[in-house]
Protein backbone atom coordinates (compact mmCIF):
# COMPACT_ATOMS: atom_id res chain seq x y z
CA UNK A 1 0.00 0.00 0.00
CA UNK A 2 1.39 3.43 -0.86
CA UNK A 3 1.53 6.16 1.73
CA UNK A 4 -1.19 8.06 -0.12
CA UNK A 5 -3.50 5.04 0.11
CA UNK A 6 -2.76 4.70 3.80
CA UNK A 7 -3.37 8.41 4.28
CA UNK A 8 -6.76 8.21 2.55
CA UNK A 9 -7.77 5.15 4.52
CA UNK A 10 -6.83 6.55 7.92
CA UNK A 11 -8.29 9.96 7.21
CA UNK A 12 -11.69 8.40 6.73
CA UNK A 13 -11.99 6.32 9.88
CA UNK A 14 -15.12 6.89 11.90
CA UNK A 15 -13.76 6.13 15.36
CA UNK A 16 -10.51 5.56 17.18
CA UNK A 17 -11.35 1.86 17.30
CA UNK A 18 -11.45 1.80 13.52
CA UNK A 19 -8.16 3.72 13.32
CA UNK A 20 -6.51 1.16 15.55
CA UNK A 21 -8.03 -1.66 13.51
CA UNK A 22 -6.57 -0.18 10.32
CA UNK A 23 -3.20 0.39 11.99
CA UNK A 24 -3.06 -3.19 13.22
CA UNK A 25 -4.08 -4.47 9.75
CA UNK A 26 -1.22 -2.47 8.24
CA UNK A 27 1.09 -4.11 10.73
CA UNK A 28 -0.22 -7.53 9.79
CA UNK A 29 0.58 -6.85 6.11
CA UNK A 30 4.17 -5.91 6.92
CA UNK A 31 6.29 -9.06 6.41
CA UNK A 32 7.88 -10.57 9.50
CA UNK A 33 11.58 -9.86 9.68
CA UNK A 34 13.67 -13.07 9.82
CA UNK A 35 15.33 -13.55 13.21
CA UNK A 36 18.81 -13.09 11.73
CA UNK A 37 17.89 -9.51 10.88
CA UNK A 38 16.58 -8.78 14.38
CA UNK A 39 20.03 -7.77 15.57
CA UNK A 40 20.96 -5.49 18.45
CA UNK A 41 22.36 -3.09 15.89
CA UNK A 42 19.07 -2.90 14.04
CA UNK A 43 17.13 -2.11 17.25
CA UNK A 44 15.67 1.37 17.53
CA UNK A 45 16.47 2.73 20.98
CA UNK A 46 13.91 4.83 22.80
CA UNK A 47 10.85 2.68 22.09
CA UNK A 48 8.83 0.92 24.77
CA UNK A 49 8.51 -2.16 22.57
CA UNK A 50 11.10 -3.81 20.34
CA UNK A 51 11.52 -2.18 16.93
CA UNK A 52 14.06 -3.33 14.34
CA UNK A 53 14.89 -1.30 11.28
CA UNK A 54 17.17 -1.71 8.23
CA UNK A 55 17.69 0.98 5.62
CA UNK A 56 19.62 0.57 2.42
CA UNK A 57 20.14 2.51 -0.75
CA UNK A 58 19.43 0.89 -4.11
CA UNK A 59 22.71 1.85 -5.83
CA UNK A 60 21.23 1.98 -9.34
CA UNK A 61 17.96 3.70 -8.61
CA UNK A 62 19.27 5.79 -5.74
CA UNK A 63 16.05 4.89 -3.91
CA UNK A 64 15.68 4.00 -0.24
CA UNK A 65 14.82 0.44 0.71
CA UNK A 66 13.43 0.00 4.20
CA UNK A 67 12.43 -3.07 6.16
CA UNK A 68 11.38 -3.27 9.77
CA UNK A 69 9.47 -5.18 12.39
CA UNK A 70 8.10 -4.85 15.91
CA UNK A 71 6.84 -7.33 18.48
CA UNK A 72 3.64 -5.37 19.10
CA UNK A 73 0.76 -5.01 16.70
CA UNK A 74 0.17 -1.31 17.09
CA UNK A 75 3.80 -0.22 16.86
CA UNK A 76 4.26 -2.52 13.87
CA UNK A 77 1.32 -0.80 12.20
CA UNK A 78 2.74 2.63 12.96
CA UNK A 79 6.09 1.43 11.64
CA UNK A 80 4.39 0.29 8.43
CA UNK A 81 3.11 3.84 7.96
CA UNK A 82 6.60 5.28 8.48
CA UNK A 83 8.14 2.78 6.05
CA UNK A 84 5.52 3.62 3.42
CA UNK A 85 6.38 7.30 3.86
CA UNK A 86 10.07 6.77 3.10
CA UNK A 87 10.15 3.76 0.77
CA UNK A 88 11.25 4.50 -2.78
CA UNK A 89 12.22 8.08 -1.99
CA UNK A 90 15.65 9.41 -2.86
CA UNK A 91 17.70 10.46 0.16
CA UNK A 92 17.19 14.12 -0.78
CA UNK A 93 13.42 13.66 -0.96
CA UNK A 94 13.44 11.70 2.30
CA UNK A 95 15.22 14.49 4.14
CA UNK A 96 12.30 16.78 3.35
CA UNK A 97 9.75 14.52 5.02
CA UNK A 98 8.41 15.68 8.38
CA UNK A 99 7.05 12.34 9.52
CA UNK A 100 5.91 13.58 12.90
CA UNK A 101 3.89 16.27 11.18
CA UNK A 102 2.38 13.61 8.90
CA UNK A 103 1.26 11.66 11.95
CA UNK A 104 -0.31 14.84 13.31
CA UNK A 105 -2.22 15.30 10.05
CA UNK A 106 -3.37 11.67 10.18
CA UNK A 107 -4.82 12.47 13.59
CA UNK A 108 -2.75 9.75 15.19
CA UNK A 109 -0.57 11.73 17.58
CA UNK A 110 -3.44 12.61 19.87
CA UNK A 111 -4.07 8.91 20.40
CA UNK A 112 -0.47 8.34 21.34
CA UNK A 113 0.65 9.04 24.88
CA UNK A 114 3.91 11.03 25.10
CA UNK A 115 5.97 7.87 25.54
CA UNK A 116 4.36 6.30 22.47
CA UNK A 117 4.73 9.53 20.51
CA UNK A 118 8.39 9.47 21.47
CA UNK A 119 8.61 5.96 20.02
CA UNK A 120 7.53 7.33 16.63
CA UNK A 121 10.02 10.16 17.08
CA UNK A 122 12.76 7.65 17.83
CA UNK A 123 11.96 5.67 14.67
CA UNK A 124 11.91 8.80 12.52
CA UNK A 125 15.14 10.16 14.03
CA UNK A 126 16.85 6.82 13.41
CA UNK A 127 15.76 6.91 9.77
CA UNK A 128 16.94 10.48 9.29
CA UNK A 129 20.29 9.74 10.93
CA UNK A 130 20.84 6.67 8.75
CA UNK A 131 19.90 8.55 5.59
CA UNK A 132 22.48 11.18 6.48
CA UNK A 133 25.08 8.42 6.80
CA UNK A 134 24.10 6.88 3.46
CA UNK A 135 24.65 10.07 1.52
CA UNK B 1 -16.06 4.88 60.61
CA UNK B 2 -16.56 5.84 57.01
CA UNK B 3 -18.68 4.13 54.43
CA UNK B 4 -16.07 2.65 52.07
CA UNK B 5 -18.10 3.14 48.90
CA UNK B 6 -18.32 6.89 49.60
CA UNK B 7 -14.57 7.32 50.01
CA UNK B 8 -13.83 7.54 46.30
CA UNK B 9 -15.54 10.95 46.31
CA UNK B 10 -12.65 12.22 48.43
CA UNK B 11 -10.24 11.68 45.50
CA UNK B 12 -10.71 14.48 42.98
CA UNK B 13 -8.47 12.94 40.30
CA UNK B 14 -10.79 9.93 40.03
CA UNK B 15 -13.59 12.20 38.83
CA UNK B 16 -12.57 12.84 35.23
CA UNK B 17 -12.91 11.54 31.69
CA UNK B 18 -10.14 10.13 29.52
CA UNK B 19 -10.84 10.07 25.78
CA UNK B 20 -14.50 10.60 26.53
CA UNK B 21 -14.77 7.72 28.99
CA UNK B 22 -14.89 7.89 32.76
CA UNK B 23 -11.43 7.27 34.18
CA UNK B 24 -11.00 3.81 35.67
CA UNK B 25 -7.81 4.02 37.71
CA UNK B 26 -6.31 0.58 38.19
CA UNK B 27 -2.69 1.60 38.65
CA UNK B 28 -2.46 2.27 42.38
CA UNK B 29 0.58 0.02 42.56
CA UNK B 30 2.44 2.70 40.58
CA UNK B 31 1.09 5.51 42.70
CA UNK B 32 -2.06 5.97 44.73
CA UNK B 33 -4.45 8.83 44.13
CA UNK B 34 -4.56 11.58 46.75
CA UNK B 35 -7.53 12.59 48.90
CA UNK B 36 -8.53 16.27 48.89
CA UNK B 37 -7.30 16.69 52.48
CA UNK B 38 -3.74 15.89 51.38
CA UNK B 39 -3.91 18.40 48.53
CA UNK B 40 -5.41 21.01 50.88
CA UNK B 41 -2.70 20.47 53.46
CA UNK B 42 0.07 21.07 50.91
CA UNK B 43 -1.70 24.20 49.66
CA UNK B 44 -2.22 25.46 53.20
CA UNK B 45 1.46 25.06 53.98
CA UNK B 46 2.64 27.07 51.00
CA UNK B 47 -0.15 29.64 51.24
CA UNK B 48 0.01 30.29 54.98
CA UNK B 49 2.74 28.52 56.92
CA UNK B 50 5.70 28.31 54.56
CA UNK B 51 8.93 28.38 56.57
CA UNK B 52 11.98 26.20 56.99
CA UNK B 53 12.13 23.67 59.82
CA UNK B 54 14.64 23.33 62.67
CA UNK B 55 16.03 26.80 61.98
CA UNK B 56 14.32 30.11 62.68
CA UNK B 57 13.04 31.28 66.01
CA UNK B 58 10.19 33.08 64.32
CA UNK B 59 6.62 31.91 64.64
CA UNK B 60 6.24 30.36 61.20
CA UNK B 61 9.40 28.33 61.53
CA UNK B 62 8.42 27.11 64.99
CA UNK B 63 5.01 26.07 63.70
CA UNK B 64 6.46 24.34 60.66
CA UNK B 65 8.94 22.45 62.83
CA UNK B 66 6.25 21.40 65.27
CA UNK B 67 3.89 20.19 62.54
CA UNK B 68 6.69 18.47 60.67
CA UNK B 69 7.88 16.55 63.71
CA UNK B 70 4.28 15.62 64.57
CA UNK B 71 4.11 13.64 61.34
CA UNK B 72 7.17 11.67 62.39
CA UNK B 73 5.22 10.74 65.52
CA UNK B 74 2.18 9.84 63.43
CA UNK B 75 3.98 7.43 61.11
CA UNK B 76 5.85 5.97 64.09
CA UNK B 77 2.52 5.31 65.84
CA UNK B 78 1.14 3.85 62.64
CA UNK B 79 4.03 1.38 62.48
CA UNK B 80 4.14 0.80 66.27
CA UNK B 81 7.73 2.06 66.60
CA UNK B 82 9.47 5.13 68.07
CA UNK B 83 9.70 8.46 66.29
CA UNK B 84 13.51 8.47 66.64
CA UNK B 85 13.54 5.32 64.52
CA UNK B 86 11.96 7.09 61.53
CA UNK B 87 14.17 8.72 58.88
CA UNK B 88 12.62 10.82 56.12
CA UNK B 89 14.07 9.96 52.70
CA UNK B 90 13.09 10.74 49.13
CA UNK B 91 11.37 7.36 48.71
CA UNK B 92 11.63 3.64 49.39
CA UNK B 93 14.44 3.47 46.82
CA UNK B 94 16.60 5.94 48.72
CA UNK B 95 15.76 4.19 51.99
CA UNK B 96 17.15 0.91 50.65
CA UNK B 97 20.19 2.64 49.18
CA UNK B 98 20.90 4.32 52.52
CA UNK B 99 20.92 0.96 54.33
CA UNK B 100 22.87 -0.85 51.61
CA UNK B 101 25.51 1.90 51.57
CA UNK B 102 25.66 1.86 55.36
CA UNK B 103 26.33 -1.88 55.54
CA UNK B 104 29.53 -1.71 53.48
CA UNK B 105 31.78 -2.04 56.54
CA UNK B 106 29.51 -4.74 57.97
CA UNK B 107 30.30 -7.33 55.28
CA UNK B 108 33.35 -9.46 54.56
CA UNK B 109 34.36 -11.36 51.46
CA UNK B 110 32.03 -14.32 50.72
CA UNK B 111 29.37 -13.17 53.19
CA UNK B 112 25.88 -13.81 51.85
CA UNK B 113 23.29 -11.17 50.95
CA UNK B 114 20.00 -12.98 50.39
CA UNK B 115 17.06 -11.55 48.43
CA UNK B 116 14.15 -13.16 46.57
CA UNK B 117 13.39 -13.69 42.89
CA UNK B 118 10.39 -11.36 42.90
CA UNK B 119 12.06 -8.19 44.12
CA UNK B 120 11.70 -4.80 42.46
CA UNK B 121 14.94 -3.55 40.89
CA UNK B 122 15.21 -1.09 43.81
CA UNK B 123 15.56 -4.08 46.15
CA UNK B 124 18.04 -5.87 43.89
CA UNK B 125 20.51 -3.37 42.48
CA UNK B 126 21.60 -1.67 45.76
CA UNK B 127 22.41 -5.15 47.17
CA UNK B 128 24.20 -6.16 43.99
CA UNK B 129 26.31 -3.02 44.29
CA UNK B 130 26.96 -3.74 47.97
CA UNK B 131 28.09 -7.26 47.03
CA UNK B 132 30.46 -5.84 44.43
CA UNK B 133 31.96 -3.36 46.90
CA UNK B 134 32.57 -5.99 49.56
CA UNK B 135 33.10 -9.19 47.52
CA UNK B 136 30.08 -10.62 49.28
CA UNK B 137 27.76 -12.97 47.38
CA UNK B 138 24.24 -12.12 46.31
CA UNK B 139 21.96 -15.16 46.56
CA UNK B 140 18.33 -15.47 45.55
CA UNK B 141 15.37 -17.37 47.01
CA UNK B 142 13.54 -18.77 43.97
CA UNK B 143 9.86 -18.58 43.04
CA UNK B 144 7.79 -21.33 41.45
CA UNK B 145 6.29 -21.22 37.94
CA UNK B 146 3.42 -19.06 39.23
CA UNK B 147 5.86 -16.57 40.74
CA UNK B 148 5.21 -17.63 44.34
CA UNK B 149 7.77 -18.16 47.11
CA UNK B 150 7.38 -21.43 49.00
CA UNK B 151 7.87 -20.31 52.61
CA UNK B 152 9.16 -23.70 53.83
CA UNK B 153 11.68 -23.82 51.01
CA UNK B 154 12.70 -20.22 51.66
CA UNK B 155 13.30 -21.02 55.34
CA UNK B 156 15.49 -23.95 54.33
CA UNK B 157 17.44 -21.72 52.00
CA UNK B 158 17.99 -19.17 54.77
CA UNK B 159 19.21 -21.91 57.13
CA UNK B 160 21.49 -23.33 54.47
CA UNK B 161 23.04 -20.00 53.39
CA UNK B 162 23.08 -18.22 56.77
CA UNK B 163 22.99 -14.75 55.23
CA UNK B 164 24.46 -11.64 56.83
CA UNK B 165 21.81 -9.55 55.12
CA UNK B 166 18.27 -10.60 54.19
CA UNK B 167 16.08 -8.28 52.10
CA UNK B 168 12.58 -9.14 50.94
CA UNK B 169 9.45 -7.38 49.76
CA UNK B 170 6.43 -7.53 52.04
CA UNK B 171 4.27 -7.72 48.88
CA UNK B 172 5.34 -8.08 45.26
CA UNK B 173 4.77 -5.01 43.11
CA UNK B 174 4.25 -7.12 39.98
CA UNK B 175 2.12 -9.95 41.34
CA UNK B 176 0.72 -8.63 44.61
CA UNK B 177 1.84 -11.74 46.55
CA UNK B 178 2.14 -11.21 50.28
CA UNK B 179 5.26 -12.89 51.59
CA UNK B 180 5.24 -14.58 54.99
CA UNK B 181 7.91 -12.13 56.08
CA UNK B 182 7.44 -12.73 59.81
CA UNK B 183 8.64 -16.32 59.47
CA UNK B 184 11.45 -15.41 57.09
CA UNK B 185 12.68 -12.60 59.35
CA UNK B 186 12.65 -14.89 62.40
CA UNK B 187 14.70 -17.50 60.58
CA UNK B 188 17.19 -14.95 59.21
CA UNK B 189 17.66 -13.50 62.70
CA UNK B 190 18.66 -16.91 64.03
CA UNK B 191 21.84 -16.40 62.03
CA UNK B 192 22.28 -12.78 63.00
CA UNK B 193 21.23 -11.41 59.63
CA UNK B 194 20.36 -7.74 59.20
CA UNK B 195 16.81 -7.81 57.82
CA UNK B 196 15.15 -5.26 55.56
CA UNK B 197 11.57 -5.42 54.36
CA UNK B 198 10.44 -3.43 51.33
CA UNK B 199 6.96 -2.28 52.26
CA UNK B 200 6.42 0.04 49.29
CA UNK B 201 3.45 -1.98 48.06
CA UNK B 202 2.24 -3.49 51.32
CA UNK B 203 2.02 -0.50 53.65
CA UNK B 204 -1.26 0.94 52.36
CA UNK B 205 -2.99 -2.43 52.19
CA UNK B 206 -1.63 -4.20 55.28
CA UNK B 207 -0.73 -1.47 57.81
CA UNK B 208 2.00 -3.62 59.37
CA UNK B 209 2.94 -3.61 63.02
CA UNK B 210 6.73 -3.49 62.89
CA UNK B 211 7.17 -4.45 66.53
CA UNK B 212 5.44 -7.72 65.68
CA UNK B 213 7.34 -8.20 62.40
CA UNK B 214 10.62 -7.62 64.26
CA UNK B 215 12.57 -6.64 61.13
CA UNK B 216 15.62 -4.37 61.49
CA UNK B 217 14.59 -2.07 58.66
CA UNK B 218 11.32 -1.38 56.87
CA UNK B 219 10.98 1.03 53.93
CA UNK B 220 8.05 2.66 52.20
CA UNK B 221 7.12 5.48 49.82
CA UNK B 222 4.55 8.10 50.83
CA UNK B 223 3.12 8.46 47.32
CA UNK B 224 1.96 4.84 47.23
CA UNK B 225 0.01 5.46 50.43
CA UNK B 226 -2.11 8.53 49.56
CA UNK B 227 0.78 10.93 50.22
CA UNK B 228 2.84 13.18 47.94
CA UNK B 229 5.72 12.06 45.71
CA UNK B 230 9.33 12.59 46.70
CA UNK B 231 9.00 11.34 50.26
CA UNK B 232 9.96 8.01 51.75
CA UNK B 233 10.26 6.44 55.15
CA UNK B 234 13.11 4.41 56.54
CA UNK B 235 12.37 2.66 59.80
CA UNK B 236 15.37 1.20 61.58
CA UNK B 237 15.77 -0.35 65.04
CA UNK B 238 17.43 2.48 66.85
CA UNK B 239 20.85 1.11 67.79
CA UNK B 240 21.41 -0.49 64.43
CA UNK B 241 20.11 2.56 62.58
CA UNK B 242 22.29 4.90 64.61
CA UNK B 243 25.33 2.67 64.02
CA UNK B 244 25.11 3.15 60.25
CA UNK B 245 27.54 5.71 58.84
CA UNK B 246 26.16 8.93 57.36
CA UNK B 247 24.85 8.61 53.79
CA UNK B 248 24.88 12.19 52.55
CA UNK B 249 26.34 15.15 54.34
CA UNK B 250 25.37 18.79 54.64
CA UNK B 251 23.62 21.18 56.94
CA UNK B 252 21.31 20.32 59.83
CA UNK B 253 22.78 16.84 60.42
CA UNK B 254 25.93 18.06 62.15
CA UNK B 255 26.93 18.66 65.76
CA UNK B 256 30.09 20.64 65.10
CA UNK B 257 31.93 21.57 61.93
CA UNK B 258 35.45 22.89 61.51
CA UNK B 259 37.67 22.69 58.45
CA UNK B 260 39.55 19.85 60.12
CA UNK B 261 36.70 17.64 61.18
CA UNK B 262 32.94 17.31 61.60
CA UNK B 263 30.91 15.47 64.20
CA UNK B 264 27.43 14.29 63.39
CA UNK B 265 24.20 14.24 65.31
CA UNK B 266 22.45 11.02 66.24
CA UNK B 267 19.78 9.31 64.11
CA UNK B 268 17.46 10.28 62.63
CA UNK B 269 19.05 13.74 62.17
CA UNK B 270 22.34 12.33 60.89
CA UNK B 271 20.55 10.93 57.84
CA UNK B 272 18.60 14.08 57.03
CA UNK B 273 21.00 16.69 55.67
CA UNK B 274 19.71 19.87 54.08
CA UNK B 275 16.19 21.21 53.97
CA UNK B 276 13.75 18.29 53.95
CA UNK B 277 10.65 17.86 51.80
CA UNK B 278 8.51 19.73 54.34
CA UNK B 279 5.31 20.05 52.30
CA UNK B 280 5.41 16.34 51.43
CA UNK B 281 5.85 15.40 55.08
CA UNK B 282 2.85 17.56 56.04
CA UNK B 283 0.83 16.13 53.13
CA UNK B 284 1.74 12.63 54.26
CA UNK B 285 0.56 13.58 57.74
CA UNK B 286 -2.83 14.41 56.25
CA UNK B 287 -2.77 11.08 54.40
CA UNK B 288 -2.15 9.22 57.65
CA UNK B 289 -4.94 11.16 59.38
CA UNK B 290 -7.23 10.21 56.51
CA UNK B 291 -6.23 6.55 56.72
CA UNK B 292 -6.80 6.58 60.46
CA UNK B 293 -10.46 7.36 59.87
CA UNK B 294 -10.87 4.15 57.86
CA UNK B 295 -11.27 1.03 59.93
CA UNK B 296 -8.56 -1.36 58.80
CA UNK B 297 -10.60 -4.57 58.96
CA UNK B 298 -13.42 -2.98 56.94
CA UNK B 299 -11.01 -1.65 54.33
CA UNK B 300 -9.13 -4.93 54.08
CA UNK B 301 -12.32 -6.93 53.68
CA UNK B 302 -13.55 -4.53 50.99
CA UNK B 303 -10.27 -4.62 49.04
CA UNK B 304 -10.14 -8.40 49.24
CA UNK B 305 -13.69 -8.85 48.00
CA UNK B 306 -13.01 -6.49 45.07
CA UNK B 307 -9.88 -8.46 44.28
CA UNK B 308 -11.73 -11.79 44.38
CA UNK B 309 -14.34 -10.35 42.01
CA UNK B 310 -11.62 -9.10 39.65
CA UNK B 311 -9.85 -12.46 39.62
CA UNK B 312 -13.11 -14.30 39.03
CA UNK B 313 -14.03 -12.05 36.09
CA UNK B 314 -10.57 -12.34 34.54
CA UNK B 315 -10.45 -16.12 34.95
CA UNK B 316 -13.61 -16.45 32.91
CA UNK B 317 -11.97 -14.99 29.81
CA UNK B 318 -10.52 -17.73 27.66
CA UNK B 319 -6.87 -17.14 26.83
CA UNK B 320 -6.09 -15.10 29.93
CA UNK B 321 -3.33 -16.40 32.14
CA UNK B 322 -3.00 -15.07 35.69
CA UNK B 323 0.24 -15.10 37.65
CA UNK B 324 1.14 -14.90 41.30
CA UNK B 325 -0.53 -15.96 44.52
CA UNK B 326 -4.22 -15.18 44.11
CA UNK B 327 -5.03 -16.02 47.76
CA UNK B 328 -2.48 -14.03 49.77
CA UNK B 329 -2.54 -10.82 47.83
CA UNK B 330 -2.73 -7.07 48.38
CA UNK B 331 -5.09 -6.63 45.40
CA UNK B 332 -2.73 -6.66 42.44
CA UNK B 333 -2.93 -9.09 39.54
CA UNK B 334 -0.65 -9.60 36.56
CA UNK B 335 -1.87 -11.38 33.44
CA UNK B 336 -1.17 -12.13 29.80
CA UNK B 337 -3.55 -12.94 26.94
CA UNK B 338 -2.44 -15.79 24.66
CA UNK B 339 0.83 -14.67 23.08
CA UNK B 340 -0.33 -11.08 22.61
CA UNK B 341 1.91 -8.21 23.64
CA UNK B 342 0.98 -6.39 26.86
CA UNK B 343 1.76 -3.09 25.15
CA UNK B 344 -1.12 -3.38 22.66
CA UNK B 345 -3.58 -4.02 25.48
CA UNK B 346 -2.39 -1.14 27.66
CA UNK B 347 -2.61 1.21 24.70
CA UNK B 348 -6.11 0.12 23.67
CA UNK B 349 -7.36 0.04 27.27
CA UNK B 350 -6.22 3.64 27.67
CA UNK B 351 -8.55 4.64 24.86
CA UNK B 352 -11.39 3.22 26.97
CA UNK B 353 -10.28 5.35 29.92
CA UNK B 354 -8.72 2.40 31.72
CA UNK B 355 -5.38 3.06 33.41
CA UNK B 356 -3.30 -0.09 33.90
CA UNK B 357 0.43 -0.72 33.93
CA UNK B 358 2.11 -2.85 31.30
CA UNK B 359 5.66 -4.09 30.94
CA UNK B 360 8.20 -5.70 33.22
CA UNK B 361 7.24 -3.50 36.23
CA UNK B 362 10.91 -3.03 37.22
CA UNK B 363 11.16 -6.76 37.91
CA UNK B 364 13.13 -8.06 34.93
CA UNK B 365 14.61 -11.06 36.80
CA UNK B 366 11.09 -12.15 37.80
CA UNK B 367 9.94 -11.80 34.18
CA UNK B 368 12.88 -13.97 33.10
CA UNK B 369 11.90 -16.60 35.67
CA UNK B 370 8.30 -16.60 34.43
CA UNK B 371 9.58 -16.57 30.84
CA UNK B 372 7.64 -13.43 29.98
CA UNK B 373 8.57 -10.15 28.34
CA UNK B 374 5.95 -8.40 30.42
CA UNK B 375 2.42 -8.50 31.78
CA UNK B 376 -0.62 -6.28 32.12
CA UNK B 377 -0.98 -5.33 35.78
CA UNK B 378 -4.17 -4.28 37.50
CA UNK B 379 -3.65 -2.89 40.99
CA UNK B 380 -6.58 -1.97 43.22
CA UNK B 381 -7.09 0.31 46.17
CA UNK B 382 -10.02 0.89 48.54
CA UNK B 383 -11.26 3.77 46.35
CA UNK B 384 -12.01 1.41 43.47
CA UNK B 385 -15.41 -0.23 43.15
CA UNK B 386 -17.21 -3.00 41.33
CA UNK B 387 -18.18 -0.62 38.51
CA UNK B 388 -14.47 0.02 37.85
CA UNK B 389 -13.91 -3.69 37.44
CA UNK B 390 -16.99 -4.15 35.23
CA UNK B 391 -15.85 -1.29 32.98
CA UNK B 392 -12.38 -2.76 32.79
CA UNK B 393 -13.64 -6.23 31.90
CA UNK B 394 -15.97 -4.80 29.22
CA UNK B 395 -13.11 -2.79 27.73
CA UNK B 396 -10.86 -5.84 27.85
CA UNK B 397 -13.40 -7.85 25.84
CA UNK B 398 -13.52 -5.04 23.28
CA UNK B 399 -9.72 -4.91 23.09
CA UNK B 400 -9.54 -8.65 22.50
CA UNK B 401 -12.10 -8.30 19.69
CA UNK B 402 -10.11 -5.43 18.15
CA UNK B 403 -6.83 -7.30 18.37
CA UNK B 404 -8.19 -10.55 17.02
CA UNK B 405 -10.54 -8.95 14.54
Key traits:
heterodimer; A: 135 residues; mainly alpha; Sufe protein. Chain: A; two-stranded antiparallel ribbon; 6 helices; 12% strand; globular; B: 405 residues; alpha/beta; Aspartate Aminotransferase, domain 1; Aspartate Aminotransferase, domain 2; seven-stranded mixed β-sheet; four-stranded antiparallel β-sheet; 40% helix
What's the quick description here?
By secondary structure, chain A is mainly alpha-helical. Helix content of chain A is 53%, strand content 12%. The N and C termini of chain B lie far apart (48 Å).
Model description:
The complex is a heterodimer of chains A (135) and B (405). Chain A has 135 residues and is mostly helical. In chain A, 53% of the residues lie in helices and 12% in strands. In chain A, a hairpin with a 4-residue loop joins strand 1 and strand 2. The longest helix of chain A is centred in the C-terminal third of the chain and has 21 residues. With 405 residues, chain B is of the alpha/beta class. Chain B folds into two domains: 132 residues, Aspartate Aminotransferase, domain 1 (Alpha-Beta Complex), CATH 3.90.1150; 253 residues, Type I PLP-dependent aspartate aminotransferase-like (Major domain) (Aspartate Aminotransferase, domain 2, 3-Layer(aba) Sandwich). Chain B is 40% helix and 17% strand. In chain B, helix 4 links the parallel strand 5 and strand 6. The model of chain B has no long low-confidence stretch (mean pLDDT 96).
Amino acid sequence: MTYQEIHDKLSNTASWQQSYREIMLLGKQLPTLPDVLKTEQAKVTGCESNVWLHIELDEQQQNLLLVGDSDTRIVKGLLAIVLAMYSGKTPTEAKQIDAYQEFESLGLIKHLSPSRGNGIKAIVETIQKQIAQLT
Amino acid sequence: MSDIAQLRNDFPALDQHIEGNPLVYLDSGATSQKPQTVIDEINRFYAKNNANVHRGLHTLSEQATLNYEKVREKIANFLSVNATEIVWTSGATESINLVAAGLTQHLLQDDIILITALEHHANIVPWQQLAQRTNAKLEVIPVNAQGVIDTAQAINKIAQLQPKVFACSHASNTLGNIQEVEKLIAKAKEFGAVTLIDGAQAFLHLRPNLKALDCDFYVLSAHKALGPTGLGVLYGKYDLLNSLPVYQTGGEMIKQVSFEETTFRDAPAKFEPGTPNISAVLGFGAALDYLSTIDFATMHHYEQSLFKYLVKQLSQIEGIKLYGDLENNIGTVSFTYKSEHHYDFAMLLNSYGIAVRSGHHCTQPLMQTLNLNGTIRVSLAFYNNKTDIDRFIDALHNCIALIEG
